[in-house]
Amino acid sequence: MHELSIAMNVAELAREHSRLHGDGRVSAVTLRIGRLSCVHEDSLRYSFELVTEGTPLAAARLRIIEVPIRIWCPTCEAERELPGIQRLACPECGHLSGEIRAGRELDLESIELAPETTP
Ligand SMILES: [Zn+2]
């Protein structure tokens, strides 16, 4: 399962980040996921819950920023955003483009730590 291994990697990175910052509690993890990366968002959220359950990361929120697909259209000489992954063609002129400029991302955008609470 693709999403499970991603969730495990993300959880591991978040734990490491927390360790490097005095074992602070991770409050949120943000990922940037391109629509072409074939990551199923619901499945990733579920996997993340699964791998963080019972760990200090259990309270961490998973935020997902979906990155749309952008191609370069040589006919329009412009970058175009595609409405879906069905057809990699320029939505303006129909030119088929193989040059994908965005949409394959699978990046860890940020890891937020909860602010220290002093009683
Ligand atoms: Zn075009």
Written account of the structure:
The chain has 119 residues and is an alpha+beta fold. It folds into two domains: 1-68 and 104-119, hypothetical protein PF0899 fold (2-Layer Sandwich); 70-102, no CATH class. It has helices at 2-20, 41-52, and strands at residues 26-34, 61-67, 69-73, 78-82, 100-102, 106-113. The strands form two sheets. The chain has a three-stranded mixed beta sheet, covered by helices on one side. The longest helix has 19 residues, at 2-20. The radius of gyration is 18 Å and the shape is elongated. The structure holds zinc ion. Zinc ion binds at residues 73, 75-76, 90, 92-93, 95.
State which percent range the strand residues make up. Answer: 25-35%
Number of helices: 2
Radius of gyration computed on alpha carbons: 18 Å
CATH class of the largest domain: Alpha Beta
What sort of overall outline do the alpha carbons produce when their principal axes are compared?
Answer: elongated
Compute the separation of the termini in Å: 43 Å
Q: How many DSSP-defined strands?
A: 6
From the helix content, strand content and strand pairing, which structural class follows?
alpha+beta
At CATH level 2, the architecture of the largest domain is: 2-Layer Sandwich
H/E order of the elements? HEHEEEEE
Helices and strands in order:
Layout: H1 2-20, E1 26-34, H2 41-52, E2 61-67, E3 69-73, E4 78-82, E5 100-102, E6 106-113
Parallel strand pairs: 1-2
Antiparallel strand pairs: 1-6, 3-4, 3-5
Helix pairs in contact: 1-2
The structure holds zinc ion.
In short:
The chain has 2 helices and 6 strands, in the order H-E-H-E-E-E-E-E.
